[in-house]
Amino acid sequence: MTFAYVFGPVASSRLGHSLGLDLLGRRICSMDCLYCEVGRTDILTCERAPYVPAATILDELAAWRNENPGTHVDHVTLGGSGEPTLNSDMGRIISGCRTILPDVPVAVLTNSTLLHRKDVRDEAACADVVLPSLDTLVETEFRALNRPEKELTASGVAAALLTFRKEYGGRIFLEILLSKGINDSQENLALLRQFVPELAPDRVDVTTLSRPGAYSKAAPVDADVRAAWCDALNACLPAADPQQTGIFLRTGQRADFTQRDDRAVESMLLQTLSRRPQTAGQLALALSLPLDRVERALRPLLQSGTVAPLPSQNLQQQDEDPFFALADR
Ligand code: SF4
């Protein structure tokens, strides 16, 4: 079966082997971040709707389980091509995941912009781990970097996160993404130093761009800046290789796709490249495949023009490896 809304599992530094569910199916989001790896937001909205109905996603998840017996998954992760909490079927999707994969914890990725709504907080609270992002508390930076729907403010998002923290007994992994010259200011750092202890997340990750963003203005910060922010915010500094992280190693298992035939590998590559540009090395890591297997599968896709290399856009690629994306991205 071809899967439209289930993808992976891919190796994640925070979630181990993460089986992704795309709750939007299109680029629908409450923000249009400069750094978005998925691409520019097509529909900018805060309106909730069953963009992909629960039954559609859960039927696919059940089919994926039946086709992949024994494949190890650490988390089922609600995310996708936009903001997953916009899907008004999210609560039903989380409870369906628990029925279909009862031993697998559920994670929700969110940009935090809908947490002011009680219904969204109640649904998100059914997950085992919630991974909110909040990149800046400076309103001008928030507008410049995250380009939110016009009603949203950084202070409103921060207040909603604090409310959620009080109500939710599960784990919160906060992510702060830094973009050079936009939100790496001392003003933002000072505000976040007050906010983070108040939120008391179980984990903080300070990240920067590692793949091309939707807009060329977005650029990664230097390693020393990121390290200083990690220190100041008591954040994790994940290894570049997620297989080296504690979370990954704790699982004690790796998905093994090496036995997949060439067609299956090609389909996995196309699926993951449809979500974000990646280098051959990143693809190998994400899909738990040897690099030469990825390179072999990429060759005909490049020759046919289905996949094309992208310019590296100022990213800190020590090895200068090209990023690949679907040609019709
Ligand atoms: S990075 Fe996340 S929040 Fe920002 S536009 Fe992309 S999907 Fe939306």
Q: What does this protein structure show overall?
A:
- The protein has helices spanning 54-67, 90-100, 118-124, 139-146, 154-167, 186-199, 223-232, 246-251, 262-273, 280-287, 291-303; strands at residues 6-12, 16-22, 28-29, 43-44, 75-79, 106-110, 129-132, 171-178, 203-208, 307-310, 323-326.
- With 329 residues, the chain is an alpha/beta fold.
- The protein folds into two domains: 6-251, Alpha-Beta Barrel (TIM Barrel), CATH 3.20.20.70; 262-326, Winged helix-like DNA-binding domain superfamily/Winged helix DNA-binding domain (Arc Repressor Mutant, subunit A), CATH 1.10.10.10.
- The strands form three sheets. A seven-stranded mixed beta sheet has the order 1-2-5-6-7-8-9. A two-stranded parallel ribbon has the order 3-4. Strands 10-11 form a two-stranded antiparallel ribbon.
- Mean pLDDT is 87; it is low at 239-255.
- Iron/sulfur cluster is lined by residues 29, 31-33, 36, 38, 41, 82-83, 111.
- The site of iron/sulfur cluster (SF4) has 10 residues, from loops.
